[in-house]
Structures are given as C-alpha cells and as structure tokens.
Design brief:
elongated, 23% strand, 2 domains, transferase, SAM-dependent methyltransferase, 7 strands, TrmK, methyltransferase, methyltransferase activity
C-alpha cells in the first residue's frame, strides 16, 4: 500500500469522500489516505492527525515525499484536537480502530465537528456503538459498506447530519447492510451465529445462576435476530 494505491479497505473509505471536500483524517498513520485524495482530485485540502510521534513523523515524511505540503497539514494531536476552525474541515475520516475508540474520539472534542457535514467511519470491531452514538447525536446513516480483506471483515459507516430511527436489528446489523446482504455480511453474521450457538451450548450444562440465565436469554435473543435475517 502507498499514496497511489490504497488497501481495499481505505479505497472504499475514499469512495465516500465528496469531491471538493476538505478532509481531516484522524489516526492517519502514513497519511496515505489524504495524499491519495489530493492526488485523485477528490479533496482540495486535508489535515492528517496523529497522536503518536512515530506515525506523525512518518506522515510528515510521506506528505513531503508526495510534494503535498501546501495541501496537507500534518498535526501531532489527540484525535479531533488536530482540527482547527481555520481549516474549514467538512469531512472527517477515522479508520482502522475499534468502534468504542472511534466514539471516544468523536466525543472528546465535539467543537471540532461544528463545521463537519460528513463522517466516514471504519471500525475494525463493534460498529454497533457507532450507530448508537449517531442516534444519540443527530447524525443519520447516509450509507454503509462491508468488505473482506486479508481474511478480516470490515464495516464502513457514513454519517450525515440529521435525525433517524433505527430498530434494534438495524443498530446491530446496519440498516443498509441488512438490506443488501453482501457475501461479506452473510459470512460475518453466519460466523457470529455459530459463536453464539457454541457459547449457548457450553452454558447449557452449567449451574443455574441469575447471570447464566441472563446470558442464555441474551444469546437466545441474538440468535432469533440473526436467524430472522439470514
């Protein structure tokens, strides 16, 4: 992977960036995504934010190597603290972290989101918490994607400002994803279903306690949800 050729995962993230956007890529690592977006003429300017010194220095070096220091600002900062009002950022990308970490980044510096109209979030795990956060903070799901790369399955959630209503199943599975039922989606939830069945089987012979009963009820409920979908 480099600034001209992204991974399948980041390339999918890039597809959701609107043409003419001013992008902040939080946790940018080598700044491959911002460099790619500028090279492709998708973004007009970008901020690459990194909280760790090593990746920050890698991003600075990459931006210089690509000759994009006039278009991309690299900042060493904690999450959205990398975004300044003068940047006029309208699109934020956060990719390659767990859902709870992404939510904590969004919540820590809410002032940095004031001018932002689109969030493109790629959680490695627990996309559900991102949908829950969106519901609670007046963001609506504009689109979703799911893909497999290197034997891992990734979800991408694209949010625009606005309210929405989601069912319990839509929060868990993703409203757009559960309609399309792409092969990666079916694979992910078939695997989860098998895991839940295994756990349920393992506790069947366990001593009956309130905790065990609660876990059994939770697993049975999840299995009913997923079976109704697949």
């Amino acid at each position: 992977m480099n600034a001209q050729k992204l991974s399948k995962r980041l390339e999918t993230v890039a597809k959701f960036v609107p043409t003419g956007a001013v992008v902040a890529d939080i946790g940018s690592d080598h700044a491959y995504l911002p460099c790619y977006l500028i090279h492709k003429g998708v973004a007009t300017r970008a901020v690459a934010g990194e909280v760790v010194k090593g990746p920050f220095e890698s991003a600075v070096g990459q931006v210089k190597k690509e000759g994009l220091t006039e278009k991309i600002t690299v900042r060493l900062a904690d999450g959205l603290a990398a975004v300044e009002a003068a940047d006029k950022v309208d699109t934020v990308t956060i990719a390659g972290m767990g859902g709870p970490l992404i939510v904590s980044i969004l919540e820590k510096h809410p002032e940095s989101l004031r001018g932002v109209t689109r969030l493109i979030l790629q959680p490695n795990i627990h996309a559900k918490v991102i949908r829950e956060w969106a519901l609670a903070n007046n963001w609506a799901i504009q689109d979703e994607a799911i893909l497999e790369e290197d034997e891992k399955i990734y979800e991408i959630v694209v949010l625009q400002r606005g309210s929405m209503k989601l069912t319990e199943a839509e929060i868990l599975f993703g409203p757009k994803l559960m309609l399309r039922k792409a092969p990666a989606f079916v694979q992910k939830w078939t695997r989860e279903k098998q895991n839940w069945q295994r756990v349920l089987q393992s506790i069947e012979g366990a001593e009956q306690t309130p905790e065990i009963d609660e876990k059994r009820a939770e697993l049975t409920h999840l299995l009913n949800l997923v079976e109704g979908l697949l």
